[in-house]
Design a protein that fits this description.
alpha+beta, 5-stranded antiparallel sheet
């Protein structure tokens, strides 16, 4: 993952394993990905993003997703018009889960590709990634907090 200034918004959510909103799914990686993805989807809808969806299938890993995380789609990640919008990773311990979510406001993979060792993809070999308007993306963290607090 290449983190570029002014090109993405990063959201970290930490949920204790004993949180009553999370306890029923805390032991299931896939269900917990759907849990956070569903709440991000709801937060996006509250911000007026109506045509998003949550990926309900298995991991969709093309040729380059091991090098470029936005080249694949995991269960629970959010799509916009069939393109990946919100990438989610999950770190787990007995204490709980940390979800790291990224949303691009600008997607230009050429710079990232140049940083990769060979063999590396050409920009045209990577799937197109959905982006959000900066103002909407910057409002996503607050909207997600509101969704989670309403549970």
């Amino acid at each position: 993952m290449l983190v570029e200034p002014n090109a993405m918004v990063w959201l970290d959510t930490i949920v204790p394993a004993d949180d009553p909103r999370f306890v029923d799914i805390a032991g299931d990686v896939t269900r917990s990905m759907h849990w956070i993805g569903g709440h991000v989807h709801t937060a996006l809808a509250a911000l007026g993003v109506d045509d998003a969806s949550v990926h309900d299938g298995p991991m969709d890993c093309g040729q380059w997703c091991r090098l470029v995380c936005f080249a694949g789609t995991a269960p629970g990640e959010v799509l916009l018009g069939g393109r990946k919008l919100v990438g989610i990773s999950q770190r787990r311990t007995r204490a709980g889960a940390r979800f790291q979510c990224a949303v691009h406001t600008r997607w230009s993979p050429e710079y990232m590709i140049e940083l990769l060792a060979r063999p590396r993809p050409l920009a045209g070999e990577l799937p197109d990634v959905a982006t959000l308007d900066v103002a909407v993306a910057e409002g996503l963290a607050e909207a997600l907090v509101a969704v989670l607090n309403a549970l």
